[in-house]
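WARN  no MSA supplied for this record, continuing single-sequence
INFO  ligand: heme C
INFO  echoing inputs
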Amino acid sequence: MNPDPKDPLLLEHEADGIKELDNLLPRWWVWLFYLTTAFAVVYMLYYHVFRAGQLQVAEYQKEQAIGDKIKSEAISKFESALGALEPVKDQSALAQGQETFMKLCAPCHRPDGGGLVGPNLCDDYWMHGSNYVDNLKIIINGVPEKGMLTWRGVLRPSEIQAVASFIYTFRGTKPPNPKPPENQQQPKKPSEFE
Ligand code: HEC
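INFO  complex generated
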């Protein structure tokens, strides 16, 4: 029933004088509605019924697997460039490491490793970790704000490996007048060294 024959669009209901016209929805809106409905159906079938697509968790795991692969490749590249991440025992490599040390490191760490500007490399006190890999990281990255230079790009990986292996031979030696420990950490027990 149309309450007003003059206006065929006017609907019957009224609230506090507000009336409604029975206008058609705009075409673009209707088409958008159909499209989103169709999309939802396709989406549901694709992801949840046929399980053809990957949901968030699966996609995350896939990306993570790719990341893990990149990481392990980078580590193995690093390992092949720097050896098995253990100090080398080979005499010629140690001699090469000694030469590098005397030339580039001794001015700050002293030829016997006792420490001068740089810390003592013979005692059990370490600021950046006591194992060989910790040493490698410091030699590669340096601690520029504290005066330890960055040797990345200056020394080749094999030279870094050689010099890190050479300073490893300082451990436990007792050079005269060593630089006192700079950090307050308790020294590690020998069994804790890697
Ligand atoms: C310009 C001076 C300087 C030179 C050159 C230098 N170092 Fe250092 N090195 C330092 C200083 C200073 C530190 C301490 C950094 C800190 O306080 O964090 C240090 C720290 C280190 C450490 C870490 C010690 C710890 O207690 O954890 C290692 C290992 C090391 N240097 C090895 C080397 C090697 C190998 C070379 C030569 C390739 C070298 N350094 C050349 C000044 C130097």
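The mean pLDDT is 89.
INFO  checksum written, moving to next record
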